[in-house]
Specification:
The chain is globular. With 111 residues, the chain is of the alpha+beta class. The chain starts with 6 loop residues before the first helix and ends in a 5-residue tail after the last helix. It binds zinc ion (ZN).
């Protein structure tokens, strides 16, 4: 799949609307439209990577950045964190990153 057709690239370009969580020069994070956890969002590289099968040494920095960002951006607002407790927040962040990785690996691009 080319960057032109890629759903994640379309989201990054704003061609498909999303609820943005975070953005910088390299990555874009947005809420999953079908949340499977209290906090569930996707973090995608702005650089098109078709699937985890195509990740190579040149992607080391960006993949590491995504893994480091996931638990930080996965923390709910202070009020919700106090209610949920730190363990649930951590689990949700883990679920979010695991799902993002799994979806990237599967090359899911249905919408
Ligand atoms: Zn893409």
């Amino acid at each position: 799949m080319s960057a032109q057709d890629c759903i994640f690239c379309k989201i990054v370009r704003g061609e498909i609307p999303s609820r943005k969580v975070y953005e910088d020069g390299e990555v874009f994070a947005f809420h999953d439209i079908h949340p499977a956890a209290p906090v569930h969002f996707m973090i995608v590289p702005k650089q098109h990577i078709a699937s985890l099968a195509e990740v190579d040494e040149s992607h080391r920095a960006i993949m590491g950045k995504i893994m480091v960002l996931a638990p930080r951006k996965g923390k709910p607002p202070a009020k919700a964190a106090a209610k949920a407790g730190p363990s649930k927040a951590a689990v949700a962040a883990k679920a979010a990153s695991a799902k993002a990785a799994a979806e990237a690996a599967a090359g899911i691009a249905k919408k």
